[in-house]
Design brief:
The structure holds two protein chains of two kinds. By secondary structure, chain A is α+β, with helices and mostly antiparallel strands. Chain A has 17 helices and 16 strands. In chain A, strands 1, 2, 3, 15 and 16 form a five-stranded mixed beta sheet that branches. In chain A, strands 8-7-6-11 form a four-stranded mixed beta sheet. In chain A, strand 7 and strand 8 (259-264) form a beta hairpin. In chain A, helix 4 (91-123) runs antiparallel to helix 6 (142-163). Chain A starts with a strand and ends with a strand. The relative contact order of chain A is 0.22. Chain B folds into two domains: 4-76, Ubiquitin-like (UB roll) (Roll); 86-210, no CATH class. Chain B is built from eight helices and ten strands. Chain B has helices at residues 22-28, 78-93, 109-116, 152-156, 181-184, 189-198, 219-222, 227-231, and strands at residues 4-9, 12-17, 52-55, 58-61, 72-74, 133-134, 140-143, 166-169, 176-179, 204-206. In chain B, the strands form three sheets. In chain B, strands 2-1-5-3-4 form a five-stranded mixed beta sheet, sandwiched between helices. In chain B, strand 1 (4-9) and strand 2 form a beta hairpin. The longest helix of chain B has 16 residues, at 78-93. Chain B starts with a strand and ends with a helix. The chains are: A alpha+beta, B alpha+beta. At the A-B interface, helix 2 of A face loops of B.
Chain lengths: 483, 232
């Protein structure tokens, strides 16, 4: 008799998700779905509010990467207040935002890898669930755990000195920023007491990469085949093709590396990207219009950024990028667990960029804000830690927001996560008589590779619990397991 | 005959000038009594009740009650603090005071009093009345969800001929403070900024400039409300 398995809640993933797996009479997986079952509604309740509230209001979508929403909204409003896109700000305006964003990237990626994903690598996907968490990591590999905690703390400090608060700051405002970096703050971040300084963060970032590469060398088959599949990839790249998470143009490549979108000004994103609504999830499914729903979906995030960019403009990360590209002979990399490899290269790049920016005297300039002729529509795009993030606002004559459209990174990765879940379910559950905890964790590992938090995408709160339900082909529930 | 008199607040001897209100004398003697509707230079009306004290077992508003020799005033007691806290809570539930995205956060007197009286969760249900943001004027917007109807804008923001920019509209539950639409078109920058400054909450906002003052550097970020009076 065919049956359906539901994993609900999904753990070590922020927000609330549910996985349903349908199996046939022979115990083979026939279909699976990652349901996002919360609703947030930010796009609606920001309507009617004065536009300058958006960067501080909308960032409440998330507690892990609020800076991404903060800056994306500010970038959209730069356009509305006439400060232009991207490079229209003063040097200190753009560089302070960049520093804030790299601090955010650093802490968020570190949290994602060390706190949420490293337990799977240290203890194995089928490891003892009682150990397979950050406390277990501390007991097993204290140095690694301490580095993870301190690296995240450092990233948070960078955010504090640029945004005014570690979480939900106010640093980016329409047309610029509200503070520069004082020389005292520069000294704290650049040359703080060991280990809280920029050089140590670069050193530890290299160490984290070596940890992953060592694990990869010993577990090649698993890392390379786990939920690996071909797909398109999309990200923002700098105008010259360099890796850039703050400003640039949209680029997408297919599985062969052929550019299927290039040099696209993100102010026109809605000419190229469409969102599909499916009845079983609150999260939409974006795709490239010209390729249609079936062929136009794409992945975003660390793996995609390294698949679309031509180079990384810092020396140590560039060296690691070359190794990463060589692994697939320069072709796009479709291996889901390589997201973590790419993520750690981005951690290194962020540490290098933080150090470079801290040495830039422009950060002490006083010309913080630029204004110009107002207009009524603005789109802000940045590369958030999980992937490309779109904020689109329209305002009326009275400065009130009339429309907000947010396509967050997790939404962009909706179809990819569903695909990864499906492949994992087939690999781990086909023909099995009983659903075990390791099988359920494998599905979560697939989701976590992309995203440890689903709440922003639905516009939810709390830790994500996991429930797995088994149903037959007529959707009758035969079994349900929760954790 | 002396023009001063002595009385006590919570047992502390206060020397006051005759004719002063309890609030004025308390302030001069380093005793903080919270206020919201009271504003320097404007005749007090005692409408918000947050400055209530107890004299001879009766609640009186300290902003309107003149001092008298030998008076025994209770102010910082558990009962009165809870009364003040309940007034703050009622003001919070009567609108939508979402501090995180309010430009006045850190400079807001209501928020500062919420912290002082350790308001965690209001004990009263939210009213959820539908209120508007009126933003038709070129310089100022009025967020009715944040208005506590203290009347400070009505009494202090006037043109050269003494005509008020703000007035009450409607009655009862529908009562709101509105800005004269025609006058709003010609208000000066200076007066518009004064209107925002005089508003104890974030109901009157100067348009277009948001969050230019970083968190941590705002008035009550540096000095909790009342602390300046108490250290004098």
């Amino acid at each position: 008799m065919s049956k359906k398995i539901t994993i609900e809640p999904v753990t070590r993933v922020e927000g609330h998700g549910k996985v349903t797996i349908q199996i046939d009479d022979f115990g083979n997986v026939t279909d699976s779905r990652l349901h996002i079952v919360e609703f947030r509604g930010f796009e609606r309740f920001v309507q009617g509010r004065p536009y300058w509230e958006a960067p501080v209001l909308v960032q409440r979508l998330c507690g892990i990467c609020p800076v991404s929403h903060h800056i994306a909204a500010a970038k959209a409003l730069d356009v509305i207040v006439g400060a232009g896109t991207g490079h229209g700000l003063t040097a200190v305006g753009e560089k302070m935002r960049r520093l804030m964003h790299y601090g955010q990237f650093f802490q968020s990626h570190v949290l994602h890898f060390f706190h949420l994903s490293s337990p799977d690598f240290l203890f194995g996907i089928d490891g003892d669930p009682a150990l397979r968490n950050i406390i277990g990591v501390i007991q097993e590999n204290r140095d690694l755990a301490v580095q993870g905690v301190m690296m995240r703390k450092y990233g948070q400090e960078v955010i504090f000195h640029t945004a005014g608060k570690k979480i939900h700051g106010t640093g980016a405002i329409p047309g610029g920023i509200n503070k520069n970096l004082s020389l005292e703050e520069k000294e704290i971040l650049l040359n703080g007491a060991d280990p809280m300084n920029a050089d140590k963060m670069v050193e530890w970032s290299l160490g984290a990469l070596e940890f992953f590469k060592g694990y990869h060398a010993h577990n090649k088959d698993m890392v390379d085949t786990f939920a690996a599949y071909p797909s398109n990839h999309l990200s923002m790249v700098r105008e010259d093709g360099a890796f850039d998470i703050y400003h640039g143009v949209l680029r997408a490549v297919d599985n062969d590396g052929k550019r299927i979108l290039d040099d696209v000004d993100y102010q026109d994103y809605d000419k190229y990207i469409e969102e599909e609504v499916r009845s079983w999830s609150y999260m939409k499914f974006p795709y490239l219009k010209h390729l249609g729903k079936e062929k136009g979906w794409y992945r975003v995030g660390p793996l995609s950024r390294l698949n679309t960019c031509d180079f990384i403009p810092t020396p140590l990360a560039q060296k690691e990028f070359e190794l990463f590209k060589a692994y697939t002979n320069g072709k796009p990399n479709g291996m889901t667990l390589h997201y973590h490899w790419a993520r750690l290269i981005e951690v290194l790049h962020s540490a290098e960029m933080i150090r470079e920016l801290l040495n830039d005297s422009d950060l002490q300039n006083d010309d913080l804000v630029v204004t110009g002729e107002k207009c009524k529509k603005g789109v802000g795009v940045i590369e958030a830690p999980r992937g490309t993030l779109f904020h689109h606002y329209e305002v009326d004559d009275d400065d009130r927001i009339t429309l907000a459209n947010l396509i967050v990174s997790t939404t962009n990765n909706n179809q990819p996560m569903n695909t990864a879940v499906n492949l994992t379910a087939k690999a781990f559950m086909n023909g099995k008589a009983e659903i075990t905890e390791p099988m359920m964790n494998a599905v979560e590992v697939a989701i976590r590779a992309y995203d440890p938090c689903l709440s922003c995408a639905t516009h939810a709160l709390g830790q994500m619990p996991l429930e797995m339900t088994i149903v037959n082909k007529n959707n009758v529930i035969l079994d349900r397991k929760t954790k | 005959m002396s023009d001063t008199c002595k009385f006590k607040i919570d047992g502390k001897e206060i020397i006051a000038k005759k004719g002063q209100t309890i609030l004025e004398a308390a302030k001069e003697n380093g005793v903080f009594i919270p206020t919201l509707c009271n504003f320097t230079g404007v005749k007090p009306k005692g409408s918000c009740r947050i400055c209530s004290v107890k004299i001879n077992d009766r609640f009186m508003t300290s902003c309107t009650t003149p001092v008298a020799a030998g008076m025994e005033v209770e102010s910082n007691t558990e009962e009165i603090s809870d009364l003040r806290k309940s007034i703050i809570e009622l003001l919070f539930v009567s609108g939508n005071h979402f501090c995180p995205s309010c430009e006045k956060s850190g400079n807001c007197e209501l928020q500062a009093l919420g912290y002082r009286y350790q308001m965690m969760v209001p004990r009263f249900p939210y009213s959820f009345d539908k209120k508007n943001v009126v933003a038709t004027g070129p310089k100022l917007l009025k967020d009715q969800d944040r208005c506590i109807k203290c009347q400070r804008c009505m009494k202090t923001i006037k043109d050269d001929e003494g005509k008020r920019y703000y007035a009450f509209k409607n009655r009862g539950r529908d009562l709101e403070v509105v800005m004269d639409e025609e006058m709003s078109k010609t208000i000066t920058d200076e007066l518009a900024k004064e209107a925002m400054e005089n508003c104890p909450v974030g109901s009157i906002i100067y348009k277009g400039v948001g969050f230019s003052e970083p968190i941590g550097t705002r008035k009550y970020d540096k000095q909790p409300i009342g602390s300046l009076i108490e250290t004098n």
